[in-house]
Structures are given as C-alpha cells and as structure tokens.
C-alpha cells in the first residue's frame, strides 16, 4: 500500500514538473527502482506512466505552441518519431547492469544542463539557428529522450531557446508536444521488447495525467525561481542516491 502511494505521489508531481519545465523522471525512475522494478524496466515504465501527462499538458498549452525559427511543425514531428524510436531501440539493447551505472551520470548531466540553460539561451548566436543545425540538434535530443526520459523537458526548453524561441509559454507547449510524440513511439517499442511493468504503469498513469493538466494550467502563476530551485535540488539528490546505489 505504501509503495503504491509513493508511486502515485511521484507520478503526480512528475506530471506537474514535466508540464511546466521538465524533470519528472527524477521522481518516477527512483520511485520505481525503490519499488523493486529493474532499472531498464523502471525507465521504460516511468516513460509510459508520464505519457498521459505529456498529452494533457500539450492540450493545456495548445493555444501557446509555435515552433522556433527555421523549423516547421512537420519537421519536428518527423524528427521526434525518428529520434524516439532510435533511442528506444538503444535502450532495448542495454543490459540492466550497464544502465544502472549510466543512470546517475545521465541524471547529473540533465541537472547541469538545466542550471546552464538560461546562460546558454542568453548567449545564443544567429548561426546556431540554421535549419540543418536545428534539425540535427532536435534529433540528438529526441534520441536521448527515447533512451532516457530523465531531464528531457529541460533539454528541450534549453534547445528551443538556443534556436531562437523567446516565448517560454510557446517553448513549453512545443516541449510537451515533442515529448508526447517521441514517447508514443518509444513506449510502443518498449512494450514490444517486454520492458513495461504494466501494473506499476497503470497505477502511475492517472496521477501523471492529472498532474500534467494542472501543471499546464498553473504554469502562468508559479514563480519560476521556486520551480527551478526545486528541480535542481531534486536532480542533484536523485543523482547522489543513484551514485550511492551503483557504488
């Protein structure tokens, strides 16, 4: 009972975080691992559980979404599907022991990039907005997202800022749409590969759905500094815990 309550709480807060800025997998992955789900399966299951939150958040931001300069909506859809499927296939080929060793580094990387994102965005150059650079960058981040969902929203927000998207609301809406697309194809491959813990996913999905919608609706009222501090603290804490578990 306590384990189920922990999974529900983690999924709800994760859905809210993903809707507003990202970092939801900082909560769902450790919650599933601590519940006894193997690391690779926990990553896949947490990604599936967060999918309803991405969908509801994308719906909540539907009026604010627009792509950054140099990229069309059609290109983003294609890149999201290719990147998500590529990353998912890489995860299917990764042994659980190897993934456990990689996870803390991935969490730490996502946290550091989130901290640096405002500075990177402020120092962007016009040359970084060329269509080819934009497409390659989006493809790289979506492959990452298909392999490891942790920090995906953080990376997408930073990337869209670097590509010239100046509206945070527009970037948030686009981030949720891209996340939903790549996650859809990724979880289909996870399921095909037998990585999903279906009971845990079902427990978490509804909570993530509610959290995603409420997060999208409340994004305009939440102080950004509070949110950023909370995400950074969560990322560092989860990174440390996974380093300790893998040692």
From TrEMBL:
GO terms for cellular component: plasma membrane. The chain crosses the membrane at residues 45-63, 75-93, 99-118, 178-195, 226-244. Pfam families: TauE. PANTHER family: MEMBRANE TRANSPORTER PROTEIN YFCA-RELATED (PTHR30269:SF0), TRANSMEMBRANE PROTEIN YFCA (PTHR30269). This is Probable membrane transporter protein. Keywords: Cell membrane, Membrane, Transmembrane, Transmembrane helix, Transport. It comes from the Bacteria. It is a multi-pass membrane protein.
């Amino acid at each position: 009972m306590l384990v189920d309550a922990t999974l529900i709480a983690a999924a709800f807060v994760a859905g809210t975080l993903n809707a507003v800025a990202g970092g939801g997998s900082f909560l769902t992955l450790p919650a599933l691992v601590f519940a006894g789900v193997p690391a690779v399966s926990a990553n896949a299951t947490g990604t599936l559980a967060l999918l309803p939150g991405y969908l509801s958040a994308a719906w909540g931001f539907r009026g604010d979404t627009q792509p950054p300069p140099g990229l069309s909506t059609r290109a983003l859809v294609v890149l999201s599907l290719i990147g998500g499927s590529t990353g998912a296939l890489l995860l299917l080929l990764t042994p659980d022991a190897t993934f456990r060793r990689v996870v803390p580094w991935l969490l730490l990387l996502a946290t550091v990039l989130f901290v640096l994102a405002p500075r990177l965005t402020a120092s962007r150059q016009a040359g970084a907005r060329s269509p080819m650079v934009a497409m390659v960058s989006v493809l790289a981040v979506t492959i990452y997202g298909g392999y490891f969902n942790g920090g995906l929203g953080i990376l997408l927000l930073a990337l869209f800022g670097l590509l010239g998207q100046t509206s945070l609301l527009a970037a948030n809406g686009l981030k949720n749409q891209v996340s939903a697309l790549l996650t859809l194809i990724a979880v289909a491959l996870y399921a095909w590969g037998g990585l999903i813990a279906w009971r845990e996913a079902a427990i978490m999905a509804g909570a993530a759905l509610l959290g995603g919608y409420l997060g999208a609706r409340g994004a305009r009222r939440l102080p950004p500094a509070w949110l950023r501090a909370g995400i950074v603290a969560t990322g560092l804490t989860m990174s440390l815990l996974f380093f300790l578990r893998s040692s």
